[in-house]
Amino acid sequence: MAKKLTGFEVKPEEKQNWQSIAMVWIGSMICVPSLMIGGLVGSSMSIGKVIMAILIGYSIICIYMSLIGIQGCDTGLPTAVMASGALGKKGAQYVISSVLAIACIGWFGIQSAVCGTSFSSMLATMTGITIPTWLSSTLWGIIMLVTACYGFKGLKWLNFVAVPLLLIVCGYGVWAAMVQFNGLEVMANYVTPHPMPFVTGISLVVATFAVGGAISSDYCRFAKSRKDVIKSSVLGVLPAGLTMLLIGAVMSIVTGQYDISAVLTAVGVPAIGLVALVLATWTTNVTNAYSGGLSLSNLLGLDESYYKVTTAIAGGIGTLLAALGLLGKFTAFLTLLSALVPALVGVLIADYWLIGKGDPKAFKLREGVFAPGMISFLVGALVACITGGTFASFPSLVAAFPILNMPFFIGPINGIVVSMLLYIAIVKVIPGPNPSYNEN
C-alpha cells in the first residue's frame, strides 16, 4: 500500500475515535461565516426552503467528504499527497495549493471585512465614534496578520472562550429577536423582497464547507475504520451546520438584516456581540492566513522556513481585498469555491472509487502532471461555474459571452459529475504513467 512508502503512515497509537474527529468538524462549523451565509440565504427564501437547501447542501458535502475521508483512512495519506494519484505530483501541488490559497486568502479578506464592518458599526452605536469601514477592516486585518506571522501563544486558548461565547450570543440573539419582533408571526408571513433561486441557495451552503470536505482525509486518515469516517463526517457537519445556518436565517428573517453586526445591535447586545465576533473571527482568521501562506509556499516550491514571508503575502492580499470591499462580492466568492472544490473532488473520487474500485492496493501515486486528471478538473470546474451562476456577478463579461451563464440544475453537482465522467473516459483512452510508488 502507498502509505508504507510515503512517510505519512499513521501509527496504530495515533488512531482516534470518531467523536474526536467529529469535534474538529463541529468546531469548524461554529463560526461567523456560517451565520452570514445562513442570513444571506434566509433573507432570500422561505424558512422551509432554507431548511431544504441546508439539508441538501450539507448532504452533498457529507457524501463526498466521507468518500475522500475513507480514502484517507485506507491509505493513510492527506489530501495533498493523495491527489497525486489523479493529478500527478506536480499537478496536485499546483491545483491543491492554488485552490487552498484562493480559499484561505479569500476567507481572510472576508473575515477581516466582517470584523472591520462589525467593529465600526457597533462602535458607532455604543459611543457615537465613526471609523471608516475600510480603515477598520485594514487595521483588524493587520492585527490578525501580525498574530499569524509572529505567533501569540494565548491565541489558541481564545477558542475556548470565543466559540461558547459566540453560541451564547447567537442563542440570545435568536430569543431576543423572536420576542422583540414577534418572530413567529414574522416568519409565518415572511415574503422575501429579493428571491434567490433554490439551487443558488444550495450552492452557497456547499461553499461554506467545500474546502473542509475536500481535505477531510487530512483528519480522517486517523480514523479507526470506514464506519468511523462516515459517522464523524455526518454527525460532525449536519447538526452543527444546520444549527448555525438556521440561527443566521432566523435572525435575518425576523430582523430584516443578514449583517450579523446589525442583527446583534438590533436585539440589544452590541458590546457582548462585538467581543464575540472579534474573538471568533480573530482565532479563525489567523488559521486562514497561516494556511494560505503554507499553500503559497507549496505553490512556489518553497519550504516551510519561508512561512512568515508567504503568510505575510497571503494576509496582505486578503487585507487589501477587505479594504477594497471584498465583502460586497461575498456571494461571487462562495459560488467560485462551490465550483472549484467539488470538481477537484470528483476527479479524486473517480480515480479511487470508480477506476480503482475502492481498493487501496490498486491506488497509484504518479509523478509529474497527469493530464486526464488536470483536464477533467478544469472542465468540471468550468461547467460548475457556467451552470452554477459564478459569472453572473460579472454582467459585462456575461453580456460579451452569454455562454458563460447558463444555469442548470446544481452547479457543484454538475462539476462533480462532469469531472468524474470525463476522467473515466480519458483514462480509458490515454494510458497513464507508471506509479511513483510500489503498490504492494
If you had to describe this structure to a student in words, what would you say it looks like?
With 440 residues, this protein is mainly alpha-helical. The chain has a domain at 28-329: Hydantoin permease. It has helices spanning 18-29, 32-42, 47-75, 79-82, 84-87, 89-127, 133-150, 155-180, 183-188, 198-208, 210-214, 217-220, 226-255, 260-266, 270-300, 307-323, 330-355, 371-388, 395-400, 411-429. The radius of gyration is 22 Å and the shape is globular. The termini are close together. 56% of the residues are buried. Residues 1-5 and 436-440 have low confidence and may be disordered.
CATH class of the domain at 28-329: Mainly Alpha
Cα distance spanning the termini: 5 Å
Mean pLDDT: 88
Total beta strand runs = 0
Helix content: over 70%
The third-level CATH topology of the domain at 28-329 is Hydantoin permease
User: Quick one: biggest sheet?
Assistant: none
Question: Runs with pLDDT <50, length 5+?
Answer: 1-5, 436-440
Question: How large, in whole angstroms, is the Cα Rg?
Answer: 22 Å
CATH architecture of the domain at 28-329: Orthogonal Bundle
Percentage of residues in strands: under 5%
**Count of alpha and pi helical runs:** 20
Shape: globular
Briefly note the structural class of the backbone. mainly alpha
Write out the CATH superfamily name of the domain at 28-329. Hydantoin permease
Order of helices and strands: HHHHHHHHHHHHHHHHHHHH
Subcellular location: Membrane
Main location: membrane
Transmembrane segments: 21-41, 47-70, 91-110, 122-150, 157-178, 198-220, 232-254, 260-284, 305-327, 333-354, 375-403, 409-430
Protein name: Cytosine permease
